Amino acid sequence: MIHRIAEHLVRQRLEDYPAVAILGPRQSGKTTLAKAIGGKYFDLEDPSDRVGLDLQWATLTPGADLVILDEAQALPEVFPRLRSAIDKDRHHNGRFLLLGSVSPALMRQVSESLAGRLALVELTPLVLEELSPDRMDDLWLYGGYPLGGILEFRRYPVWQGDYLSLLAQRDLPAWGLPAAPQVTARLIQMLAAVDGQVWNASQIGQSLALSYQTVNSYVDYLVGSFLIRRLDPFHGNARKRLAKRPKVYWRDSGLMHAVMQVRDMGHLLGLPWVGASWECFVIEQILAHLGAWGVAYRASYLRTSDGYEIDLVLEVGGRTWAVETKLTASPSIGDIARARKAAALIGADLCAVVSRTSEPVEGEGTLSTNLPAFLKTLAGRVG
After folding, report:
1. 0.90 cut: is pTM over it?
2. Rounded-to-integer distance, Cα 152 and Cα 178, Å
3. What's the rounded Cα separation, in Å, for the pair 123 and 2?
4. Scanning 73, 102, 163, 318, which has its CA 20 to 30 A from the CA of 226?
5. Domain parsing of the chain, residue ranges
6. Which stretch of DSSP H or E encloses residue 22?
7. Over the stretch 181-225, which tens digit does the pLDDT of each residue have?
């Protein structure tokens, strides 16, 4: 079984809080992780487990065993009972482990019933540290969902198509998205085509015959379901006019590749937008690792009116990292010099060019490296 690096963070939070919620997309491994930690498990989408929980509640809640409640959003009435049980013994930590996808109903119940009583941990699909450096291209192509091809390549891209179809037809409507499944499917296709680009809701809205406000509200649900990430523009003092709209990224490259009908790695490398796919993959790997390590960060991107760009501005531990991605095995001196100049505009402490080089080089305030080496460097400096 693959060891999830977020397990340490979950165990740590259980020592400090009465309850912990593991949030993440469906099929990312939340149930497997919870069962590895151990405890009394209840699937709240299963009627028999609901009955079992109700009948055992009086003996479970004061007991020593961790109580695991999977798909907690499916049973809203459990949240007041959790609050009551926690408040009867506020010094008893590590009692409840909730699993769920971020839906408006779940987050409303958490904020109303369990504020101050519960810690949140996000579990992403598999990340590079949980595999091995030589699986990087597989992870980029297939994505990190355990059942989506990274562990058995024959499942790609059929698994991804089924996953997105169920998301559009069942999960998103259940979580409150008012769009018809056909509209959601078209929006998903359009988002795949603009992966890594500055967001233009009006342009997407025209194609869907929707207002930009409606499109933005729909995308909010896709962000909440861990499908899409918005990366805000940098707002610090760069003494230049800066981009003001966010970029949008697919959080799992395999899902996006399936929508775009990418067949294999050779096909991907020949596509005109492969550089954007690499950029999105690198950024998501960096941010997913930071989250799994429990490191607080602020992420943005920089784009100036005269053409200077930084793919990822990372503010973490009081330091600012400027991360530029290049899909090349040999970044040029010009690539590095331009990245350094852009980093200087924001006073970055470190400028990193993440490419596919096999020979990482570090100079004063500058790092030219590959993704596995960069993640090791990052772990060493923020751990």
Report:
1. yes
2. 35
3. 14
4. 318
5. 6-122, 128-274, 284-382
6. strand 19-23
7. 999 999 999 999 999 999 999 999 999 999 999 999 999 999 999
DSSP string spanning 177-237?
--S-HHHHHHHHHHHHHTTTSBP-HHHHHHHHT--HHHHHHHHHHHHHTTSEEEEPBP-S-
Q: Which two tokens stand for residue 146?
A: 């355990």
284-382 maps to which CATH number?
3.40.1350
Choice among 7-21, 101-115, 183-197 with the minimum mean pLDDT: 101-115
The distance from CA 40 to its chain's CA centroid, rounded to whole angstroms, is: 28
Cβ–Cβ under 8 Å, residues 353 and 331: yes
Nearest to 302 by CA among 354, 253, 350, 344: 344
List, in sequence order, every residue forming a beta bridge with 198; answer none if it has no partner: 247
Could you please state the CATH topology (level 3) that the domain comprising 128-274 is classified under: Arc Repressor Mutant, subunit A (1.10.10)
Is CATH 1.20.58.100 correct for 6-122? no
Q: Which two tokens stand for residue 216?
A: 């933005």
DSSP characters for 76-107? TTHHHHHHHHHHTTTT--S-EEEEE---HHHH
